[in-house]
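Re: manganese (II) ion structure - here you go.
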Amino acid sequence: MAVSTEQLGGQPESRYLISDLCELLETYLEPEQVREVYRAYLFAAEAHEGQHRLTGEPYIYHPIAAARILAEMHMDADSIVAAILHDVIEDTPTAKAQVATEFGSEVAELVDGVSKLTQIRFESQAEAQAENFRKMMLAMVKDIRVILVKLADRLHNMRTLGVMRPEKRRRIARETLEIYAPIANRLGMNQVRLELEDLGFTALYPLRSRVLRESVRRARGNRKEILSKIETAIKRRLRQEEVEGRVLSREKHLYSLYQKMRGRGLSFSEVLDVYAFRIIVDKVDTCYRALGVVHNLYKPVPGRFKDYIAIPKANGYQSLHTVLFGPYGVPIEVQIRTEEMDQVAEAGIAAHWLYKSGEDSANSAQVRARNWLRGLLEMQRSAGNSLEFLENVKIDLFPDEVYVFTPRGDIMELPRGATAVDFAYAVHTDVGNSCIAAKIDRRLAPLRTPLVNGQTVEIITAPGAHPNPAWLAFVVTGKARAGIRHHLKHLQGAEAVELGRRLLNKALVTLGSSLEQLPADRMEGFLRAHQLDGEGPLLSDIGLGNRMPLLVARELLGLGASEGAPAEPGAGRLARPLAIKGTEGMVVSFARCCRPIPGDPIVGFVSTGRGIVIHVENCKNVADFRNRPEKWVDVEWEPEVEGEFPAEIRVEVANRRGVLATVATAIAEAGSNIENVSIEERDGMNTSILFTINVQGRIHLARVMRRIRRISVVHRISRQRS
Ligand code: MN
C-alpha cells in the first residue's frame, strides 16, 4: 500500500529524528522535561540496539514517531517519555523495575499499561475477545494516558502497514476499525479517528477504497465551482451582517462516505452531492447569529437543524448543525462552532492537555471521558461475564448504531438517528406504511422521535393511514426511504379518490341525498356527459380541487349546475364539517402563512390541483377568499389528531451570553423539536428570536411557551402569525 507524504503530514524523515522531536517539545515543555525525553531516547535506543522494523529502518524510529504524534497534541512530558519507551518492556529484556528506577513509577505504570494492551489480540473467539476488551478498559480506567499512547502507537503502525504480510495487514486493519477507531471517537479525538479509519479502510478493502478514492477525485473537479460560489456567498453575507468568523469547506473522508453508502443504502452521487462547510466564530452567541445569517441566505431543510451546543454529544462534541437548500438545489451541510469547540471536536480528550483552561467545565472532554470510564467500571461489576460486558460496551462504543427492542423483546439494530418510522419499516413495510404513532417505553411519542439505546418501541398502526411525505425529511434508513417513496407514488391517486368521495357525499347530503341514494343511471349519465372514464377519475378530480363538489352534486341531482349564480356566503359549505385527521397525506395541506395546529379554529379552501388547504380562521389570507364562497370547505379537527405540526413563536430576550442555548434547551425539555431559528437584533439590549418548532397541538404549544416564560431573561413570548 502506498502511503502518501500527505498522510504522513509533511517530510517523512523529519518525524523520526529525535532532534526534530525535541525542537517541537521545546515550544511547550520546560527545558528539563525535554532533557528527560532525550534521556528516554538514549535509554530506548540502547534497548532496541540492532533491532529493525520490517521497513528496514532502525526500530527506534517507531517510538519517536509515536511520541511525535503525541507531541503534536501537546501531551505532557510523562506521556512523551512513555511513548518513547512503549516497546521497551515488551520487546526487550529490560524490566518494568528498571524503567521505574530510571524514570519514576508513573512512567513505568504507563509503559506497562501500553505493553499489556499491545499483547492483547482481538482476533480470537468472542469470549477471549471480550475478556481482552475488559482488560483493556481496566487499563484505561487506571490512567487514560495509556490509551492515548496506545493510539499513537497504533496510528504510526497503520501509517507503515504496507510492509506487513497481507493477512496480518488485514487483521490489524480490522482491529483498528473495530476497536481503536471507535475508542478514539468515544474520546472525541476526531483527527486520530479519521486517519485510523481511512488507513484501516484502505488496508482492509484495497479495491473498494481505490474505486471510491478515484470517484471522489473525479467528482472533485465538477464540484469546485459550486463550492467556491457557496463559500463566497456565505462569507459575503457574514461580513454584511458583521458576524466575524472563518468559513472552511470540508471534504468528506473516504471511510465515512463508504459507511453512509452502506448503512443508508445511498448511491455515490447521493453521498457526494453534499456540500459541507464549517463556520468558526468567537463565542456561543455568535454561533446562533451566524446560524440566522445562513438561514437567511439559503432556505433551511426542515427537521435537519441540530443544537449540539445546548445538548452536547456524549463525547463532549458541541456544534450547531443545519442543512440548507443551496443553489441548483444542492444540499449544503453547515457546522457552526466556536474556536474552543472546534479544538475539542478535533482533539477531544487531548484538547485537555492542549488547553489547560477547560479543566473545570463540566462539559470538558476530560470530565466526560472520566465519567464514561467510571460507568464502564460499574458496568463490569454488574455484568455477569465478560461477553455480557462486551455487549454493553459495544452499545457505548459504536454510537453509529442504536439497539432497541420490539415489545416481544427482539433486538433491532438501526443506524444512529433512526426514528420510530425507521423502526416501523424495519419491522415490516406494511407496518411502516400504516403507522400513525409510536409508544417508546410504553409512552406515546411522535413518529419522528430519534430512538435511543435500550428503548422498547411499539408501533401503533391504523387501517387506512398512509406514509406522510414529511417523513422523508427525518428517516435515515434506506428501507424506510424506499418504502415511503414507493407508496407515495401510488398514493396521491388513491388519497384524492378517497377525499373526493367524502366531499361529494357531504355535498349530496347537504342537498338532501347521498352517494348511496343516488341512482346509478344519474352517475353514468354524468360521466358520459363529461367524457369521464369511470367514477375514479371524477372523485379524484374533486379530491384534487379541479371540480367543485357542490356543483357536481347539483348536476347529479338535476338541480342545474350554475343556477342561482351568486352564491351567498356559506353556500359552498357542507352540512357537517369535514374532519381533519392529519394523516390525509398530500391532498390536505396546512397553510404556511398561519401554520394551523390541532385546537386552532380552522377553515379549508379548495385549491385547484392541490386538494384542500387548511388555514386558521382569522388568517389574513382567509379574507382573499371571502368573495369566493364556492371554494370554502367546512373543516374541523378530529378529536384525536396524530402527528406533529410546525408552529412559530417569537421570543424576546435580553442580550445575555448563552441565552439562546437556554431557550433552545427549554424547548427540547418541553418535548418539542426546533425546525428553524432566526434572529433579529432589536437594539443593544434586546434580541427577538423566531423559532419554528414542532408541536402536537395547542396544549403542547402552551406547555412549551410556559416553560420558556419561566426563563428570567425572557421578556415576552408570543405565537407568531404572518
Ligand atoms: Mn509500538
